[in-house]
Amino acid sequence: MKKVLVIDDLPENVFMLQDRLEHEGYEVITAYDGKTGIEKALNELPDLILLDIMMPDITGIEVCKTLTRNPETSGIPIILVTAKSGAEDTKEGLESGAFDYIKKPFNKTELLARVKSALKLSEAQKLLLDAEKKNTFIATVVTANHKIKQPLTLLSLTSSAIKRELNKDEISKESILNRIKYLEIAVKEITDVLNQLNEIKNPVISEYTNDIKMIKLENGDETDSPSN
Known about the structure:
Blueprint: E1 3-7, H1 11-23, E2 27-31, H2 34-44, E3 48-52, H3 60-69, E4 78-82, H4 87-95, E5 100-103, H5 108-166, H6 173-198, E6 204-209, E7 212-216
Parallel strand pairs: 1-2, 1-3, 3-4, 4-5
Antiparallel strand pairs: 6-7
């Protein structure tokens, strides 16, 4: 069941919207002022907000700006509800971050159509974001595997060489120390790759081979081709 938050200082408006939405199967939360509306939006994280512009304490425009700037609520579509009909009012409302703008008086069909449209688009955006996150995760794993494979091989070979050296009747300290240098090189390469991946703030995905993608590292290092 989709959850809708209705914010309006007039009880009759809240009741009307609540009645129509609940009749269509939506769960409705209500708030009668901007401050309470912001608090309920943060606590309840509704799927949609119907927000009146003209309120005495905090205007709907300010509430909209506050919620769209907050990472926790920025993805919630907001439909502004107002009796104002000027082009500047509409412009101000949409520039505040609102998804849509519905003018009073409105009929039931228009209201429900806009609510459904906003919820469908919001759901599509969430699915797209989830897909992008999944693709980024896979690309990060591929990048880590590709970049770390060579130093891991060096670690394995060097470890085997040290074991062979230790099994000799006469152990060469110099040979062991030389092997340890290779271990240190491999460890540094792995550490560098992990640090570069950790420093990525805005991942840039690039082609690796066929349908496989990799992450471009922060230092500008291009991903190597699979043949390298």
